[in-house]
Amino acid sequence: MEDLVELQHRLASTMAARGDWPADSPWVRQAVEDLPRHRFAPDRVWSWDGSRYVPADRTTDPGRWAELVYPGPDEPTITHITDGLATSSLSCQSIVVDMLDSLMVEPGHRVLELGTGAGWNAALLGARAGAGSVTSVEVDAQLAAMARGRLDSVDAGVTVEVGDGAHGRPEGAPYDRVIATYAVDEVPWAWVEQTRPGGRIVTPWGRLGHVALTVAADGRSASGWVQGLAMFMPSRGIGQGLPLHEVRSDNSLKTEGPFPRDLLPLRADLGLLFALRVLLPEVRITTETDWGVTAWLHDAASSWATLVTTADGNALAYQGGPRRLADEIDQAWQKWQNADAPGLYDFGMTRTPDQQYIWSGDKDTGPRWPTAPQSARI
Hints:
By secondary structure, the chain is of the alpha+beta class.
């Protein structure tokens, strides 16, 4: 087995070569070096073998365990399985770094974290904000206890509480910074209420992307920009729907026909992918590039489509189930183009007591993009 410190340094070097370490937040890299992810990994981690999650134990297979703890910058380490589903992880290191940079934590800030997990992110926050400044809330009492032990072992000075992150932690409000480590479809208003005016909230949204919101001076809204595009686990209790192979197995009837667009943007254009997520929140899209692009779509319930590049450079669509997902994708794609094809970082979000909406360009005058809770559609 390679030395864990060597693996840690290799991952850090890969991130440096890609430009992942934030120049405006040099403290992040120092904190990751001082508090490496392997110190917060449990003795059993998990990987997907194509049909199920299989364990790797530190005592019986230390090499495999180390590989899973130190994957590539964009790969998580699965640390907890519930009923066959991944429910907790050490997040992708590049995303952890990016979200901490987006949070703009300063020494002395009072920070609320929702979703303690293994405790690593909380430790990094504590290294910046200072002992006694960070409170972390975890819904799973067992995970909370284990994280508390790890945090105490490195003298992180973080308080771990058991509770539902959707309610925040009103006992400690107001906070300067609030960060969630799991995806929500709708930002809980409690998070805005518990953040001081001018304070910042960073959260994954809808399993695809994360946003940074600043609370208005009157405390009656929070707005901000999309910060990146990555997939996150949803909060506990949110249905994850059926995987593609189960959706396809239940719907053998299919149609075939031309698809009127070049498929490469489904692989490369982050603005398009985000817009499709907003307009069709329940539709999952995965792609693969060989000599052409293949895209697999499904709604986690009953409908699917496969888009493939043909030898002549055109595209075909195969689709099954009650919905015609290829047609829906084409229509949503056109709406994005009609709105001047905003890029990923042209999108933003506003949360008020009564509603949440996505906008592009300018939060007051730009186009608004309707959103629907993903959990309500699957």
